[in-house]
Each structure stands twice: as structure tokens, then as C-alpha cells.
Amino acid sequence: MMIETLKSLYNRDLNKLKVEIESYQNEKSLWIIDKNISNSAGNLCLHLIGNLNTYVGAELGKTGYVRDRPLEFSLKDISKSELISKIENTILVVNNVLDTLTEEDLKVIYPQIVFEKEMTTGFFLVHLSTHLAYHLGQINYHRRLLDF
């Protein structure tokens, strides 16, 4: 049951991320930073893609994905269509991995120490979902404030 809940949340929020990116009227606005907004929507999107492909795809799904976290925040001017393609690929990766997990897998300690302490795979997958939702909200505000 928890796996289906996680799938539902990831799909809801990754599809909403796709809608947010598609909703930018001015593609250049994806990369704007202003005043105390230090991360652009484009960079937050790349960060979410990197995060999920690392911790869900590479670690749990053995996809071979190699993360370059600094690049997630330094790349600029990636096209809207490329970002959307990356989101769609991430949706596939997350769903494929979650489809392989069992409820028992969620009780196992996650293979990496991420926050300087052990946690179950289920706990970490919930954390990753809330991390996605947090940055999704930031992207929504970024779009409404800076897309002109």
C-alpha cells in the first residue's frame, strides 16, 4: 500500500513539475534569479531530476546514472523542451524502480548514509517526495513572480 501511495505522490508532483515548466510564457524566465531568489526554476528542476535519478534511479534501480550536483545549479539556458523530456524520463525511472520494490524493501536500511545517519528506504523515499514538493512550490512562486 505504501508503494502505491509513493507512486501516486511522485507521479502527481513530477507531472505538476512538468506543467510548471511548460507554463513559463518566456523561456528565458526559467533562468532568472532576482533579489533573494538565488536559484532559478530551471536549476531547481535540474536539481530535482538529479536528486531522484541518483537516489531512486541509480541507488535503488541500478540505472547507472552519475550525478553532477554542482552542474545542476550552474547549467543555464537548457531549453524548456529538454527540461520536460528530462522530467518525463525521471517519471519513467521512478515508476520502474517503485514497481520493483516490495513493502519489505521499504523497511530495509537505505544503502547510503545521506543525512549522517541510517534510515529506512521507506523513510528516505518519503523524504524525497517532500523534497520534490518543497522545490515544486518554489518553482511555482518563481514562475508567478518572474515570468515576464
Question: What do these coordinates show?
Answer:
With 148 residues, the protein is mainly α. It is built from six helices and no strands. The mean pLDDT is 97.
List the SSEs and their pairings.
Elements: H1 2-23, H2 41-61, H3 69-74, H4 80-100, H5 103-107, H6 121-146
- Kindly report how far apart the N and C termini lie: 43 Å
Apparent shape:
elongated
Largest sheet: none
**Low-confidence sequence ranges:** none
Helix content: 55-70%
Pick out its properties:
0% strand; 148 residues; mainly alpha; 6 helices
Brief synopsis:
The chain has helices at residues 2-23, 41-61, 69-74, 80-100, 103-107, 121-146. The chain is mainly α and 148 residues long. Helix 2 runs antiparallel to helix 6 (121-146).
